[in-house]
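Note to self: keep these together.
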Amino acid sequence: MSRGLRSSAAWTAVLAAVLSSCAVGPDYEAPSVELEASFKNAGFDAPPPEGSWWSLFDDGELNRLIRMADRQGPSVQAALARYDLARADLGLARVDAFPAVTGDGYARRQSDSGNRNFSAGTYNDYRAALNLSWEIDLWGRVRRQVGAAEAGMEAAGYDYQGAVLSLRGEVARAYFSLRFADAEIALLEETANLRGEARRLMKARFEGGASSRIDYERAVTEHESVLAELAQLRAQRGRFENALAALVGTDPSGFRMGGGATPSIPRVPSAVPSDLLRRRPDIAAAERRLASASETIGLVVASFLPRISIAAEGGVQSLRTSDLFNGGSQLWSLGPEIQLPTFQGGALGQNKNKAEAAYREALANYRDALLQAVRETEDSLLDARELANASGSRRRGAASAETAAGLIRKRFIGGATDYFEVVDAERTSLAEQRAALQVDLARALAATRLVQALGGGWQR
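Structure:
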């Protein structure tokens, strides 16, 4: 390489380094949003030990289902694919930061038009060359492009984490619903047996003349009513089972869940620090999309300005293969190229308006995500506290109703009351026991919602 060429290349490299040190457009700063030190529905208590949050429910079958969902849940697999797509987009965005090198070559025989001033007639033409093009990142266009893609990839990563958290919560909710349906089915089956015995007893008494037909028909009505509710509850239980199969990525036709006990409900702490909200995947994803929108503004601003590239070419070209690698066949070129945005009908200005509007939307979405997180956490803490109180009251009420039903049943057998009072007492007892189960299910669901509201648990 000649001294002049080396000097030109050196000055070009220095110029590229100097000019690439600036970037137009706003530099992103994460928004500062003030949060209360703790939630109004609680004051801090000792948190549970760190680990998988679903283990707090002490249920091996739930642990197994969540592991299955993590491995093969369709929603998680789709979120992971979107993350991989965002990673590929980032890789493509980074390509412009490096020189692009292409090669070309040909060997052809051609004939020029005879109606031209200079015609060589028919001849051979051979060429082999390398071409280089490198954009000087004069206004930070490439860096803004990479920054936007990087923030987008990070947002997709948080979306994946959010999908995992959401799927685990859905599995837990479907599982709890199924298990409490099992408990309610067992209760109704026991009640159906008692009502069946009462039906047979009232039939014998009616046929023996010891009771009226009204009492017998009432016994039939109560028995059939419980059988109908039992059939409806079994259908609902089957839907919970099918939902679980779909969530964990298994064909519902071959998925079976045996009976089991209701899971234990963990004690929710009386308070959690509000800064736990900042680890929620949806909030983190919203903040990263805000960063991407900010970088896009700079990318659009750079489109207003000239784009300067360094272009280089080197190779050989000859009319004969024997001369192709002679010194005289060498060709090369090196120099800057510039693209100037001229008239585009106002497209540049509208693109800038569009980018700024997208940033404002992303900022509003971020603030909304944070406020919704606070609301969800407050609701879950409130539910957990009040439902715990309701559970104690329901259980005491159910125990008293069951005791009263037993006493009235004895009075009926002794002839001290009629069957109507027995039916009314048993109906009340059944309703109270089912209500107690429903409150405990609501407690389990509230604990799961709190886990999700805090991004995976209530420990720091």
